[in-house]
């Protein structure tokens, strides 16, 4: 009888304790139009309070509208979802460590693209000091002069999201950010950055958003979704 | 109507006004006035004043279920980009939003109208400052609201307590609802000009939000929109 109880306890520990201890902390979800059609795109997370501009992780949203982001820890995050031709959606979320948060995101089309920021070009350069560092430069302009801090880069290889540094000092996150060349210095200890891993998007203070610019990073005119 | 039911309607009306920061006194005194303000707010909600920037409030916030709980959740912490995140009343939050999205230099009137509209959308929702039904509660935001209530209590003690007991202020607030000089007046506006010998409280300032957060902390659980004027 004692052995049977011990065996049962051992089995219980084997099947539950490791799973509970190692369970991933995940935000997963589905992105759709108002009509229910799946939308591909990009989802990026701020760690902590939403709109703090401390970008953390991200993921591409696949053609079926699904995404999955694995996190180092639970807590509060600002979830931003982008899709070409749609107004990006920011949502404050909270996920518990070791749990999976499932979200559903519905995007609405931008009524016009005339006010969207424009990514003019992206280039990857090696820094002069060289080893282990590379520089990404992106030229951005906004027709209305109300760019915000969301000049964003995402690396699919690492799952990391970044805000790129503006060409000059900006008073606050609510200030209008300048047009010009934004930069991001990235650590590349083993090899130069692979441009195929990098995706970019830019939003202004009124939620007007560029298309997601992926490799080969050749900007094309944006279209209104009908 | 039983006296208890009448009292519930009265308290609900006060809660409505306090949440919104809108003095519904004009509308309560003159049928149709509040309805006009609600209709104006709905227009602001659905249409941008700038045809070149057609994104309106309703473009993104089109889900009526989503917006139904908003009025009841104020005052609350609005997560604006740091360091500007702070506890706001619904009127203040609307003013910030129309200033930013609509580019309006003077947002008070459209913010007032949108506030009236959002309250009309939230009739019957229990007042729950800081919490929107169906959305997660964020500890840091609730802590900020607690701090705001604490500051509001101190401000109330310094500015109001000599004349108004906190519990009695509900009744006083109810009496206070009125049209001032032919204008619908918000609670924020009233607080801003009350006791002119004192340093003024701006209608969109933190101190005003703190006092209203303190007053609202007495009303949790009451229903938004107790006023029959909000009935269709």
Relevant terms:
heterodimer, A: 226 residues, mainly beta, 4-stranded antiparallel β-sheet, 1 helix, B: 232 residues, mainly alpha, two-stranded antiparallel sheet, two-stranded antiparallel ribbon, 4 strands, disordered N terminus
Output the helix-strand order of chain A.
HEEEEEEEEEEEEE
Mean pLDDT of chain A: 91
Number of strands of chain B: 4
Identify the overall geometry of chain A.
globular
Number of strands of chain A: 13
What fraction, in percent, of the residue positions of chain B are helical?
40-55%
Trace the largest sheet of chain B across and list its strands. Answer: 1-2
Q: Uncertain regions of chain A: pLDDT < 50 for 5+ in a row?
A: 16-20
Explain the layout of strands and helices.
The complex is a heterodimer of chains A (226) and B (232).
Chain A: H1 2-22, E1 25-33, E2 41-47, E3 55-61, E4 66-71, E5 75-82, E6 89-95, E7 100-107, E8 118-126, E9 133-141, E10 147-155, E11 160-163, E12 180-187, E13 198-204
Chain B: H1 3-20, H2 25-29, H3 33-46, H4 57-60, H5 64-68, E1 76-78, E2 86-88, H6 90-101, H7 108-121, H8 139-159, H9 169-176, E3 179-180, E4 183-184, H10 187-193, H11 206-216
Helix pairs in contact in B: 1-9, 3-7, 6-7, 8-11
